[in-house]
Amino acid sequence: MVAPAPRAPTPPAAAAAVLVLSLLLLHVAVIGKCAAAAAAAGAANVTSFRPGDELRRYRRVQALLRRLNKPSLRTIQSPDGDVIDCVPAHLQPAFDHPRLRGQRPLGPPVRPSGHRRRPNDTADAGAQLWAVSGASCPEGSVPVRRITEADVLRASSARRFGRAPTARARRRDSVSGGHEHAVGYVAGDEYYGARASINVWAPTVSTATEFSLSQIWVIGGSFGNDLNTIEAGWQVSPQLYGDNSPRFFTYWTTDAYQTTGCYNLLCSGFVQTNSRIAMGAAISPTSGYKGGQFDISLLIWKDPNHGNWWLEFGSGELVGYWPSFLFSHLASHASMVQFGGEVVDTRADGAHTATQMGSGHFPGEGFGRSSYFRNLEVVDWDNSLIPLTTFHVTADHPSCYDIQGGVNAVWGNYFYYGGPGRNVRCT
């Protein structure tokens, strides 16, 4: 529904600073008394408190919120607690980029030949919770999930908010920094896009700093500091979103996740053109074990006319594009495409995480129980969707998360993947 009240005003900076500083000074006084008591009792260590550091952190968080949360034409309250702002398309975060400032979103691109709706024995999960009541944004605006102070404070720092850990820069078919994968991939040619349908689940994520995702990777460069990726799919990330719902997301980087790129619209980069799809919003419905199966279709491809990388979600919904100037290797083409799942294993209690991948069940259980990718295709140099050749599947730890591929007349190239994480064979 549409909320009748506008966003609460931000207090004047000076007043806010005085209030925060007063609270911090009070905290310092309390800490000082506690420290004196601890010293008298012979305590060995006293935690130091630096009010200047806390004030700087507060100011960084507020500055980030002002930059990300743009003025809106309409505000929509989602049933799951999200607030969706309908932001004029030319004011979205992408247009803070120096190369885009003062411009407006481009019109629709040329779609790949062979683009059509595939035979479907499952139903679409293309709806998003914020829009189930029929709420929508006016034409000329884009729905943007509002970022809260709590969202930012869950991150390791305001500077890293919305960015993936740098450990993800290593090969997807090897363990790196606690990231584990079960993926299929093609390599050794020039690729101009990829397409797949993915069924959506709500896997259990064990700790707030872990996540579980299923996505397409379009990759250029090496797996060193020059890695370029474009990514789209669904993910459960309590740290990023504050809940355990599967959400539609995108990501990009041009330097192996170090300083460039971000999730969704959390930096200047991706240009959204759609007024009905909100990036980072929860997907509904989701698949159930031995129950209904719901999937989303994703297509990423390079527009042959302008060179930008476009994203389509569901039944022909153009979401937006990544400008080609963001990239080095992907400015021309991709050298690898990957499909599959990824989880983070922090080993918080010393054992392998119980965070689930996909449905949380192994691929051997098959349809209705395991998660899948189907109708896998790539886009060739002629802007045509074609079947995969020399397709490989690999899993870092098959006893924790596994993958099994196949080909048939209805699903084309497909695979089942995922698993429960910790079990008697995965410790």
TrEMBL record:
<protein>
    <submittedName>
        <fullName>Uncharacterized protein</fullName>
    </submittedName>
</protein>
